[in-house]
């Protein structure tokens, strides 16, 4: 995800990186070129004049706008829920470390819990992106813990189990009373809920038929549009077709991009930066060395 200050209105007109224009440029150029050909031929296909005007396109465009609005609203709802869940990860891990530092007696074992929570954050990021978390585990956990995780299929869930085992060990050692363990189980349970929410979003895409209907309708609309406009606006037809096609193609591409918010596309969630920030704030709480924050813009942090 690209995180940067909002550019000046004039620069915004020419922004390339972070827009969906690179993804839709081929079909946009093809549609514009086809509109130029239709305009040059005055709407004729061979010797047959295609009898279209703008009226059916007004009706179809309204329906298409409704479908696109629904698709993009649904995609953004998934995106925002994913961001909310990652905000909850920050809050609940902070709460657990704070409780461990202030309630455990003595708090000498808190770094072990903190390492497991940080490893959980990185493991979740890797699971959502289907990448290998081994390098993060090796720098955060002991060889025994890494070996245990290597055999686990759902590594984030296993790390939450290991965090729960830390609470059990502290209770058995008399460093935490059962009442305090119960209080600390609250944030741990909410971390489990956030994990399940992320897995639900990643494993349940928007039904494919919505994408198919919108995709087919957009392309058919943009191909036929020059025939409906050429008699009314003449040489301006390619310009108007390019503008309308850009709007429809861009909205479709944006909806498809943010539908899966855990990827690495420019408009997906900045999971690398958020993971680094969560690690930094937990390390700061226990007085450990903090990793550098990555891709967090000029503010130096990511809002929850």
Topology:
Blueprint: H1 9-12, H2 21-40, E1 44-45, E2 48-49, H3 54-103, H4 110-129, H5 134-140, H6 143-150, H7 155-172, H8 178-203, H9 208-233, H10 237-259, H11 271-286
Antiparallel strand pairs: 1-2
Helix pairs in contact: 2-9, 2-10, 3-4, 3-8, 3-9, 3-10, 3-11, 4-7, 4-11, 7-8, 9-10
Characteristics:
11 helices; two-stranded antiparallel ribbon; 304 residues; mainly alpha; 2 strands
Write up this protein.
The protein is mainly alpha-helical and 304 residues long. It has one domain. Helices cover 72% and strands 1% of the residues. The protein is built from eleven helices and two strands. It has helices at residues 9-12, 21-40, 54-103, 110-129, 134-140, 143-150, 155-172, 178-203, 208-233, 237-259, 271-286; strands at residues 44-45, 48-49. A two-stranded antiparallel ribbon has the order 1-2. Helix 3 (54-103) runs parallel beside helix 11, helix 4 runs antiparallel to helix 7 and helix 7 runs antiparallel to helix 8 (178-203). The longest helix has 50 residues, at 54-103. The radius of gyration is 26 Å and the shape is elongated. The two termini are 15 Å apart. Mean pLDDT is 88; it is low at 295-304.
């Amino acid at each position: 995800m690209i995180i940067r200050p909002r550019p000046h209105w004039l620069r915004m007109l020419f922004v390339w990186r972070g827009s969906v224009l690179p993804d839709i440029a081929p079909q946009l150029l093809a549609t514009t070129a086809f509109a130029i050909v239709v305009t040059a031929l005055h709407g004729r296909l061979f010797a047959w004049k295609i009898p279209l005007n703008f009226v059916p396109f007004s009706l179809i465009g309204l329906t298409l706008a409704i479908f696109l609005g629904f698709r993009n609203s649904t995609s953004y709802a998934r995106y925002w829920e994913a961001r909310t869940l990652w905000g909850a990860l920050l809050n609940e891990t902070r709460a657990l470390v704070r409780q461990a530092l202030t309630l455990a007696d003595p708090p000498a074992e808190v770094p072990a819990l903190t390492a497991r929570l940080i490893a959980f954050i990185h493991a979740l990021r890797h699971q959502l992106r289907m990448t290998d978390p081994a390098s993060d585990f090796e720098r955060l956990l002991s060889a025994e813990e890494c070996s245990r995780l290597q055999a686990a299929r759902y590594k984030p869930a296993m790390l939450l189990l290991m965090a729960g085992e830390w609470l059990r060990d502290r209770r058995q050692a008399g460093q935490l009373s059962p009442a305090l363990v119960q209080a600390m189980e609250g944030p741990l349970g909410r971390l489990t809920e956030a994990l399940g929410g992320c897995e639900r979003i990643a494993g349940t895409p928007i039904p494919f038929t919505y994408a198919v209907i919108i995709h087919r309708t957009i392309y058919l609309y943009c191909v036929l549009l020059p025939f409906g406009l050429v008699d009314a606006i003449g040489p301006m037809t390619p310009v108007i077709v390019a503008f309308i096609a850009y709007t429809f193609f861009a909205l479709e591409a944006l909806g498809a991009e943010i539908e899966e918010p855990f990827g690495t596309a420019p408009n997906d969630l900045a999971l690398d930066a958020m993971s680094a920030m969560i690690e930094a704030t937990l390390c700061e709480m226990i007085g450990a060395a903090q990793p550098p924050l990555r891709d967090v813009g000029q503010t130096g942090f990511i809002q929850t």
